[in-house]
Every structure is written in structure tokens, then in C-alpha cells.
Amino acid sequence: MAVSNVQSAYDKLNAKSGVQTANEAGAADRFLKLLVAQMQNQDPLSPMDNAQVTSQMAQIQSVTGIENLNKTVQGLSGQFMQMQALQGTQLIGRDVIVPGNKLLIENGKAEAGFELNTAADSVKVEVLGPSGHVLDTLNLGAQSAGAHEFTWNAGTNATATGVTFRVTAMSGSTKLDTTPLMHDTVSAINTSGDSLTLELKNFGNVAYNQVKAFN
Q1: What is the pTM of this model?
Q2: 11 alpha-carbon distance from chain centroid
Q3: What does R_g of the chain's alpha carbons equal in angstroms?
């Protein structure tokens, strides 16, 4: 029984969907039994190659080690999720700033913001009604790179709903990338799946890692 035959038997024992992810402890035990049987029945005039045996032993140890590492990582991931959930509960009832272009009008005004990757010569914010028509335009002038906030006085639109905004930033004749930022309040957290989600009071859900700031 050659070493290559032992390897072939070991591969068959482990192969499931093309990946060696079966019960590693059981596979290792069966592999060692095959190896011992080979040694007991080897030809005394043609003994096994020590280098090949060492290689096979190293492989089974490597596979088992990877499996143990995966279990450790999964455990750490679970602990990290629990820590995130604990932090998330502290945000319930707090105001947060997250990516989005919706405006919530309260006491006749709405607050929102935007983020620039690079400085802009001019920034324009257009407030849009539910049908997409422009309700108002705010010319904010030159702005540096980073996050900025603005306040819109709603006036006669104080009771309007479904209001959004659009940011246009220019550097010379070049239009710059912008990220709109909206304000909302965290009403609950959701830990289902493999990520933490914040449930917002007015504008749906957002991933915890999307929060830019909170008040």
C-alpha cells in the first residue's frame, strides 16, 4: 500500500462539495489508522519513504489547524457582534447623521448635510418637493473637504412631506463627488443576520457602520 494510496483514501474521506470540510477529527483518526495499517503491512525490503510520511502528517495537522482557526474566528465574530449590539443600544433615542438625502421638517426648518472628498469652489443645495420640482436653492459658496451641515427654513413648505435635497459641488468646471447626509433618530436596533442594523424613526433602516456621527 503506497503513501499515494493513503493520500487518495484520505482525500475521499474529506471531500465534500470539492472542499475538505468534513469532521476533521474523524478524518484525521481514519487517516492515522490507514497509515498505521500501511506501516504494519509494508514490504521490509521496500520500507516507506520517511519524507512522504512526514509530508502527509503535516498536511493533516494543517487541515485541522485551519478548521480550529475558523472556529476561533467565528467565535470572535460572535463576540464582536455582541459588543456592537451593546453599543447600538446606547444609540436608541439619539440623533444620528447617516448617508441619505431626505429632509425632516421640524418647527419650520430642516437640517441636513453633505460630505466632500475634495475642496469645492462652489456648493449648491437644491431642496426638492415630492414630485422632484425645486422648492428652494441654497448657494453655500466655497467649501473645504469634509463634512458640512446646512439649515433650510421651510417657510410656506413647513408642513410638506417627502422633501429631499440635491447637492452640486464644483471645482472650476469639474463636478465633484458628494455624499448627502441626513438627520434622524434611532428608535431600535436589529441584530438579525451577520450585521447590526439601526431602525430609524423616520427614514427606514441603516447599517450601524454607516453612522457618520451622533448627538
Answers
A1: 0.60
A2: 35
A3: 31
